[in-house]
Amino acid sequence: MALNSEKETQQLQKRLRDLAEKSYRQNVYTFSGFLGLAELDVYYRMEKELLFSHPALFGGDDRAERLMIRFGSPEEWGYEEDYPIACLHVAPLLAKFSEDLTHRDFLGALMHLGIERSCIGDIRTGDREGYLYCIGSMADFICGNLTQIKHTRVFCEKVEKAGYTEKDGPEVKEILVNSLRLDGCLSKLYQISRNESLALFTGARVYVDGRLVENNSRNLKPGETVNVRGYGKFVFLGVKYETKKGRLCLEAEVYR
User: Is 211 exposed, middle or buried (0-12, 13-18, 19+ CB in 10 A)?
Assistant: First the structure.
């Protein structure tokens, strides 16, 4: 669900509360759909309120950005229920005639099948192939109906987990900045003006470790993952060195 209004935010909050209450009262595991950055920020803001139901997050593997919440306590109940997540590998029937398919192409084909966004987790594209996580109950439907992406005929199969794709790897970049302020770092890293950088914050497009950041003067900390809608994400590795004039050379792993 895209959170385009306060009403939609309140609906998500109610849904999470209902899942938490059901798990606690009935001693059963309950699961949300896949949540994107804006939805995860709503969850993080109410996380303390939901701790009674022992929420935990997972998206298929440790690199996943779109996450599912499981409510329930393995420690108290003595058993654990797996997340209802399946991984699918999608590849062209004839590789030599395939187009270079993007994340948008994959998502568009899935939406064309009438699948809700909350049923789909991460989509990772590579050299004319891709992997996607989905709610387990949708796996057979997708495998049976996802036969074409753009003009490319494809086949789809279940696999244990997403493989490494050519586009997965980060590019290590170095930038010179005056401080660790987030707005200045974004400006340098993405080669945009300071005003354009500030617009990212006012437009609610900057997330650090999954949480929306509105304070553009916030300092970066080593190990933090920054997602910038429309630009990608990067992991801040730290300060590599300081120049004689006091400027900082920062190192980051940048994903497009």
Answer: middle
Instruction: Give Cβ neighbours of residue 11 (< 8 Å, ≥ 6 apart).
Output: 1
CATH architecture of residue range(s) 85-159 = 2-Layer Sandwich (3.30)
Candidate from 1-5, 53-57, 76-80 with smallest mean pLDDT: 1-5
CA nearest neighbour of 142 among 97, 185, 98, 88: 88
In terms of CATH architecture, what is 171-255? Answer: Roll (3.10)
Phi, psi of 81 (to 5 degrees): -105, 130
Contacts of 46 (CB under 8 A, 6+ apart): 13, 16, 17
Indicate the DSSP class of residue 38: H
| Contact present, 58 and 85 (Cβ < 8 Å) | yes
pLDDT beyond 60 at 254: yes
70 contacts 20 by C-beta, under 8 angstroms: no
Amino acid at 21: E
pTM equals 0.84
Q: How far is it between the farthest Cα atoms of the chain?
A: 63
Q: CA 98, CA 22: separation in Å to the nearest integer?
A: 47
Taken in order 206, 211, 214, 216, the sign of the CA dihedral is: negative
Cα 109 from Cα 102, distance rounded (Å)? 11
**pLDDT at position 168, please?**
59
Residue pair 71/28 in contact (Cβ under 8 Å)? The answer is no
